[in-house]
Amino acid sequence: MKNKLALLALACGLSFAAHAQTVEEETLKPVAGNKTLEATLNFSGGPSTQIKFRKFKSEQVALRYTTGISYSYTKPAEDASSSNLTLSFAPGFEKHFGRTRRLSPYLGFAVPIAVSTKSYKDDQVEAKGADSPGVYGNYNRSYFSAGVNGLAGVDLYIVKNFYVGFEAGIGLSYLNYADVEVKYKDDFTRNINSEGHYGLDFRTFTNGNLRIGFAF
Predict the structure, then answer these.
(1) Taking the mean position of all CA atoms in its chain, how far away is CA 86?
(2) Alpha carbon distance 104, 106 (integer Å)
(3) What average pLDDT does this structure show over 192-212?
(4) From CA 190, how far away is CA 188, in angstroms rounded?
(5) Which long-range contacts (CB under 8 A, 24 or more apart) does 191-199 make?
(6) Could you point out which of 101, 106, 170, 195 has its C-alpha 20 to 30 Å from the C-alpha of 164?
(7) Residue closest to 215 by CA, chosen among 133, 155, 137
(8) Using one digit for the tens of pLDDT, what is the confidence trace for 165-191?
(9) Contact, 40 vs 210, CB < 8 A?
């Protein structure tokens, strides 16, 4: 009888330990009601920071909100300077898959909206709407953009509630490029006005920068 009670107690103990381990494994990743906050840092081409906030409606479904800011200020000459400020916001949705302990792959979409302001100034000329007084290509004009991105990514949880991640996708964007006004400071050079235009951009992308985040 004593042996049976001992075996029963041992079985209960092992069952409790196994249950506790299972719960720990299941809660390594976010569950319903949890939130995550992550940062993506990029120091190529000027300081740039992207912050993403997610709210998990369940273990598989998350709403996401991404904000970004980048700013560059350069001096191509002693008396010349150009600046570029870009702000962005992108709400979206993620569907997570997998029953693994650490990996959380997902598919989703986002609706990015961005505005970029550029300017140039030296002792002879001042340009608004572009960061160069003589070239007004799409790449160096101020613009407004809105679009939709299809996303695929994965989060790897290093320890409980702390992860790194990777994301890629395809996107279609509408871009409205601003007018460019170039004003010369002398009295004999005619000012230049370049009318803005719009366009569509379809592209694939990968986020090769390190995403670091935590759940709470």
Answers:
(1) 13
(2) 7
(3) 85
(4) 6
(5) 194/129, 194/130, 194/136, 196/129, 196/141, 198/174, 199/138, 199/174, 199/175
(6) 170
(7) 155
(8) 989 999 999 999 999 999 998 888 888
(9) yes
Q: Which residue, chain included where needed, has tokens 């409205």?
A: 176
- The rounded mean pLDDT for the chain is 83
131-145 pLDDT, tens digit per residue, is 888 777 888 899 999
- Which of 85, 77, 83 lies closest to 123, judged by CA? 77
Q: How many beta carbons lie within 10 A of that of residue 64, not counting itself?
A: 20
Q: Which tokens go with 164?
A: 């790194």
Cα 34 to Cα 157: distance, rounded to the nearest angstrom? 15
C-alpha closest to that of 96 among 22, 159, 155, 162? 155
Separation CA 81–CA 139 (nearest Å)? 17
Under a CB-based contact definition with an 8 Å cutoff, are residues 110 and 118 in contact? no
Q: Of the spans 41-50, 55-64, 123-132, which averages the highest pLDDT?
A: 55-64
For the record, the structure tokens of 72 come out as: 């560059």
pLDDT tens digit sequence for 23-48: 445 568 898 999 999 998 665 545 56
In angstroms, rounded to a whole number, what is the distance separating the alpha carbons of residues 54 and 168?
Answer: 17
For the chain, the residue count is: 216
